[in-house]
Design brief:
The chain is built from five helices and seven strands. The protein is of the alpha/beta class and 209 residues long. The chain has a domain at 12-140: Rossmann fold, CATH 3.40.50. The model has no long low-confidence stretch (mean pLDDT 84).
Amino acid sequence: MSKDILGYKGKRVVVMGCFSGTGEACARALVDLGAEVHGADIKPSPVDLASFTTVDLKDPHAIAAGIEKIGGKIDAVFNVSGLPQTFPGEDVVTVNFLGIRAWTEGWIPHLNPGAAIVSVSSLGGMKWLMRQPLLREFIAIEDFAERMPADYPLRTMRYANTRGVQREHPVWQALTHFFNHQTHHRGQVTVLLMQAGIDPGTTDLIAMI
């Protein structure tokens, strides 16, 4: 039996992508740990779940219907679903980015205090410059605050880092990091542009106000 270092026994969780592969393994591990696991995928899962709901991540209506069908309060959402690069590019981006984002945002009002959301990264990030129009909804953060519940920044985040050390802090600290960390990566991009002989233009915030 797996070691339940995060205390999933008795917790109500959702696993998107439980049909096969890593998602199936994730669902099995959570069931083994004693969690109440509700699965969703485009094909039925072989795992003994509390419930299974068919959801096509290319269909916004199916996404909303799936969330409504499972319903209730949730302690964790695991997004382990995606298409490989052998599928048409538009389908990959729609499922791996836009669909997962809509699915995740739909669960936010259902999250219990201290709940977690885990998303596995995707090959859909390859050749992203070629897919910018399709990725616009994914990378846009203009409406991020508008969709956030008013009390969300004051909630508590609980998780374990890669060393298994459990951490706990207010959500607003993670949100501050979310925006501040972009500055770090934009600085890296600026250096790469300058090394390539490309002028990145003015980067001083005061000059943009």
